[in-house]
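Technical note accompanying the year-one report. For the benefit of new consortium partners, we illustrate the data format agreed upon in the data management plan: each record pairs a sequence with a structure-token string. No post-processing was applied to the example shown here.
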Amino acid sequence: MASRRLALNLAQGLRGRAGGLSVPFRRGLATPHHSPAIKTETTTLKNGLTVATQYSPYAQTSTVGMWIDAGSRAETDETNGTAHFLEHLAFKGTSKRTQQQLELEIENMGAHLNAYTSRENTVYFAKALNEDVPQCVDILQDILQNSKLEEAAIERERDVILRESEEVEKQIEEVVFDHLHATAYQQQPLGRTILGPRENIRDITRTELVNYIKNNYTADRMVLVGAGGVPHQELVEMADKYFAKLPSKAPETSAYLLSKKKPDFIGSDVRIRDDTIPTANIAIAVEGVSWSDPDYFTALVAQAIVGNYDKALGNASHQGSKLSGIVHKNDLANSYMSFSTSYSDTGLWGIYMVTDKLSSTDDLVHFALREWSRLSGNVGEAEVERAKAQLKASILLSLDGTTAVAEDVGRQIVNTGRRMSPGEIERIIDAITEKDVMEFANKKLWDQDIAISAVGSIEGLFDYTRVRADMSRNF
């Protein structure tokens, strides 16, 4: 609509000129045009529910969703898997809509309805045309507050989730990272998997599902997010209409209190040797930073300096980082990926490596950790600038579309209490220097305990003590 209107205005202007001008046309000096800044607005309702929007007046679609500060971390050992189980059951019928009616209603709007569960959040969201946003909010409140959780549906989904669990177990990267969390945060909520153990999936009851909703789906732990063509005040009014009866505060159960306790990072390793897998798949991590840590963006810049590598790519020999050059020149790995994973009060900063050069596994690990040591005292301006440029580009490119923007708004507000604008993030990244990176590395990497998770043909991986000794290498 906006583009057609622009074309129409331009055509009218051209027709006016064709009829002749009363004064000679002269081009004046160009003047800067300032469009109104697109900002994130927030409102907190009386019951504590936060409503956050990023309104784009020219967007013709919107994404609305509920971000909940509860995931697998809010469970107990006995109920691990409940949050993910609930996500599956949300679309199986409510007291107002059967599953068929729910699916048909979404289909008739041409909308998309989805959900996902992570270790700390559960998210339900819909994307639709602007005029259908009220109906989408009605559907969201219905599945969040009125899900029937019928026994027959629970039994059907139990089989679906068990099959999903089997599929996840075939994805080596998922297995490695689940074990990495399990060993780094042993016997703590953050160390549990999202799907839960198979015995829990088989045994989860309706009572446990109802209790999880009662204990976690409360206004103080929820943020209703809108991105796109939905004005802030309109979404606030919808929230007041549909979510005013949400309980204000979560009961402080032992599981809740434990989920809010900062976990201890434990230097340790877990190894699953399976020589039928042709590769060694290894993740190594130190304790990283939380979402709100002052070093959050410095950690991301340091991660970008270490970089990523994939031998299958045509530019494999020119992927920028020093480590990728060493790995490629010596043919040490199929691929590696540096990562900085953050949670509300901690994080994991590390590297995930895959290699079929089984006799060189120790060399691959050695050079990766040597690169970590280098960050503590020998970082150049050029590589920091490259890393910063890559980081800014990836952040801005990840905000393409209303769903991506809603995800960014919801995640930031749930985890930190406020949303930083892309401009603010860009300024923070621009200010990071080589000195900041080296200070971060000295604090978080140099001679620090590590967690190791390894799966596959890992006979060539040295023992923990030998690998740990490489964390304080002088060149």
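Partners are asked to follow this layout when depositing records. DSSP finds 18 helices and twelve strands in the chain.
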